[in-house]
Specification:
InterPro entries: LysR-type_TF, LysR_HTH_N, LysR_subst-bd, WH-like_DNA-bd_sf, WH_DNA-bd_sf. GO terms for molecular function: DNA binding; DNA-binding transcription factor activity. Keywords: DNA-binding, Transcription, Transcription regulation. This is HTH-type transcriptional regulator SyrM 1. With about 300 residues, this protein is an alpha/beta fold. It has three domains: about 5-85, Orthogonal Bundle (Arc Repressor Mutant, subunit A), CATH 1.10.10.10; about 95-170 and about 270-295, D-Maltodextrin-Binding Protein, domain 2; about 170-265, D-Maltodextrin-Binding Protein, domain 2 (3-Layer(aba) Sandwich). It has eleven helices and twelve strands. The strands form three sheets. Strands 4-3-5-12-6 form a five-stranded mixed β-sheet, with helices on one face. Strand 3, helix 5 and strand 4 (about 130-135) form a beta-alpha-beta unit. Helix 1 crosses helix 2 and helix 2 packs across helix 3. The longest helix is centred in the N-terminal third of the chain and has 22 residues, at about 65-85. The chain is elongated.
Length: about 300
Amino acid sequence: MINLANLDLNLLRTLDVLLTEHHVTRAAERLHLSQPSVSVHLSKLRALFNDPLLIPDSRGMKPTALADELRQPLRQALESLEKAVLTSVPFEPALSQQTWRLSASDYSEFTIIQPLMNVLFQEAPQSRIAVTQMIPGRLARQMERGEIDLAFHIRENAPQELRSKALFSERYVLVGRAGHPVLRQPVSLGSFCQLKQVVVSPDGGGFVGMTDEVLKEKGLARDVVLSVPHFHFVVSVLKTSDLVAMLPQRLVQDQTGLVLAEPPLELPPFELVMLWHERSHRDPAHQWLRAKIAGVCG
């Protein structure tokens, strides 16, 4: 029988992370502890539960049957405790030393994180921002594990299990260099299809996008000659060549050296949303940050 009066909650936090990571070194990194400290915690937990809890295997460590039984109720208990504590502790941005972990594409870095920085560092001068590459398939899991605080994604592709808030709606425009001979006047659909174009393919190497799907419905195709993984490289390419691209308007509307034109076909707009996990929904610090981001995007 475990004596709750003598139970160290830090041990339970360590166990929760170990049951997620199945690896002492990775758990130590998440807990901001040394590997020996986590090993000591694991030894105390084994004695406490009279069970190995985690045993070595080829990929790191494998939970025992008891550990598997503990995983869900332990997570729920810790989340309930976090909610109870957080609601009674006000967030003071001027004193916060929080490191915010944001997941974003280079488009979201430019349209959201860059304008956010001035506000954040002015009101919370001791805070930091760590931006990680957006990997949509891993997003929900990363947030569940506490590796990411917030993410920015297109509404239609966002994981349904995450909480979300719409930030803005975006439209596409046709973009080329200033003085581009074709963009000096309205572009016909025929001329558009003959222009040599660039597409952004986040997965790498794709030459087909939404524009091509709309054209295909009309029995048409365009001349895509370059595929790149990032938006900012496209901007550089457009300024130094006669290539053109269909790009989100917010990305290019204030760029010098470019001209924006109405495309000769209508593309559906997309909605960009902010995503977060239920575990941080009531955290005053998260609520403050989400409000600042909404204000910047408003």
